Write the structure tokens for this entry.
Amino acid sequence: MKKVSESTVGRLSLYLRLLNELSLEGVQTLSSEELARRCGTSAAQVRKDLSFFGTFGKRGKGYGVPELIAALRSIMGLERRWKVALVGAGKIGVALLGYKDFRNQGFDIAAVFDADPRKVGQRFGPGIPVRPDSELEAALQTEGIDIAIVAVPVEAAQTVVDRVIRSGIRAILNFAPTKLTVPEGIALKNVNMAVELEGLSYALANDPCRSRSVREAAARSFTSPRNGTYRSEY
């Protein structure tokens, strides 16, 4: 199989989510054009993404929604359930514990760890007790954990990731806003919400339509100086 890019994998996940929604609505078949339109890409891109993994659909009839869902779940490794350990029971960690879609998609948070003794024993989300950080390695090595989510402060992130890797974990989702170093063969995904917001900021700042409307609004907001003051409409 050819090497598949992260962007392709991301689109496969998007296709699967949309297909699941359509299945709940009773849709049985879907063309590549319609799938592309709903996902904000092109039909050619849809066909190219799927072609990495085989031949799907029938010319003139489109894709069978149940069949494509099954195929994508197999491709994405979602035919089984995955055990997840969460390291860090701070605000982000607690929010992740309450995210029900993890379980719906086959990801079970089975263990939670934190270095703060005040949090040990507390239960969040589905009622999983927070365990002391000192138990991390033993639990990862003996409890069949597949994936680790790291939601710790920046200064602790690399150390925690190193410990997780030494314990045999090969897949890590990192929420600490810092660049981490991992050995070859380790799957590391970074979620940096500040970077995502900066991307949105760039999009807004470079939107010609918005820039024009902002300038026009600014022009309307101020009148000529009267008695040394300016009047704003906002």
